[in-house]
Amino acid sequence: MQTFHNLDESKQEQIINAGMRVFAIHGYKKSYMSEIAHLAEVSKSTLFYHFKTKLDLYLFLLDTAMNEIMDSVNDESVYSEKDFFECVKIATEHKMQALRKRPSLMKFLTKFYFETVPEVEPYKLEYLAKSDQMRSRLVFEELDVSKFKETVDPKLVMDMLHKWTEGYMAILDKNADDKTDQEISEFYDQMIVDFLNILAMLRINFYKPEYL
């Protein structure tokens, strides 16, 4: 794997994005190293030089996807903010930056969560645990939830936002195979606009009047 990091950065990016796109479209079993190599504009032998097996490449991409998402929401600027909605806003904006860099990242992860092939199945619990850990930290670690009205449960608010995001991503998932990277990036741009409007609406309705 070290040899891969010795490659020119632009070439690394081509391979990572090509791999995520092919696996996102076809799933693990029906994806081929030859197709990934073609999309990344490298030879198949080059790909196998850096990744001995398809599983090696797949797990590397999985680590890359999870780490980049976690890094985006674990940024210090996210957790230095104590206001619930402001924290969610900053975290979402950071996450969108990661998704613009990797247009196929979310579909790749979604595809992974539904994989049933024996080679991939053993890794699902580990990565699902990472995802849950990231989500739970965003909700409750040192956040000020005292601004909410007494009748509002912050856990349910976050769960509602999470489900809204899943629904939006499901719309993209249905059409992503036919979209260019630029079109996917534009979809994310619209998504963040809609999400921030929802945050503003929830803040007005769920916070105590003195905090508006």
Provide a brief overview of the structure:
Helices cover 72% and strands 0% of the residues. With 212 residues, it is mainly α.
Structure description:
- Helix 5 runs antiparallel to helix 7 and helix 7 runs antiparallel to helix 11.
- This protein is elongated.
- With 212 residues, it is an all-alpha fold.
- The model has no long low-confidence stretch (mean pLDDT 88).
- 72% of the residues lie in helices and 0% in strands.
- The chain contains eleven helices and no strands.
- It has helices at residues 2-5, 9-26, 33-40, 44-50, 54-73, 76-79, 84-101, 105-113, 124-140, 154-175, 181-206.
List keywords for this structure.
212 residues
How do the SSEs run, as a string of H and E? Answer: HHHHHHHHHHH
List the uncertain runs. none
Number of distinct helices = 11
Q: Can you give the mean pLDDT?
A: 88
Q: What fraction of residues sit in β-strands?
A: under 5%
The general outline is elongated
Largest sheet: none
Gyration radius from CA atoms, angstroms? 19 Å
Number of strands: 0
What structural category do the secondary elements indicate? mainly alpha
End-to-end gap: 51 Å
Helix share bin: over 70%
Quaternary status:
single chain
